[in-house]
Design brief:
2 helices
Length: 81
């Protein structure tokens, strides 16, 4: 399958799921090119931005696993080519 470049924006409204998120991200470390995390402590929210490079199955699986967690929202944008 063809590799694509994309971004994932992850919004976390309860930091109690942080360990689960980090576990999933570790499983997909081979497709994660860059990661930036920002805690907004005054709003009890955290944001993680990922740059990924992988095939669509890998990116969709990562996005899906994260999105199924409680208190987590994920949006992905992937290149067409």
């Amino acid at each position: 399958m063809e590799k694509r470049i994309g971004t994932l924006s992850i919004l976390i409204s309860d930091r109690s799921v942080a360990q689960e998120i980090n576990g999933i991200l570790s499983q997909f470390s081979e497709i994660i090119v860059a990661r930036q995390g920002l805690p907004f402590r005054d709003r009890s929210v955290a944001v993680i931005s990922l740059i990924v490079e992988g095939n669509m199955d890998q990116i969709n699986t990562l996005s899906g696993k994260l999105g199924r967690l409680a208190h987590v929202e994920v949006k992905a944008v992937v290149s067409k080519e």
